[in-house]
Write a structure and sequence with these properties.
Helices cover 62% and strands 0% of the residues. It is an all-alpha fold and 106 residues long. α1 (9-23) packs antiparallel against α2 and α3 (48-58) crosses α5. Residues 51-87 form the HTH cro/C1-type domain.
């Protein structure tokens, strides 16, 4: 399971309190989802052109880029054509590569 990323320490404390209330059945699942939306950081969103720019800045081909990101060349091609969008861990890895370069993954 991926660790939850909170917007701040304060939001983490609010989420923790809400989780306790949920376990005690004081708040319902719908309300807990509202706390999740409020407190948790959204994964980054990348458009096709963003992914192309990140890969080209790294000066690698699609197959090499896919190897670094532990995905398939086909997936990278779909991201770059806009047929799919990276989510979850892939989006986080792209965020890291954009900020620190591909070398950080070696």
């Amino acid at each position: 399971m991926t660790a939850k990323r909170f917007k701040s320490d304060a939001f983490e404390a609010i989420h923790s309190a809400a989780s306790g209330l949920r376990k005690a059945k004081v708040i319902d699942t719908k309300t807990m989802r509202e706390y999740e939306d409020l407190c948790l950081e959204e994964p980054p969103h990348f458009e096709a052109k963003d992914i192309v720019l990140i890969r080209k800045a790294a000066k690698v081909s699609q197959p090499i880029f896919a190897l670094y990101l532990n995905t398939s060349t086909s997936t990278v091609q779909k991201w770059e054509s806009g047929q799919k969008h990276p989510s979850g861990m892939a989006a986080r890895l792209l965020q890291v590569v954009k900020k620190h370069g591909l070398e950080v993954l070696t």
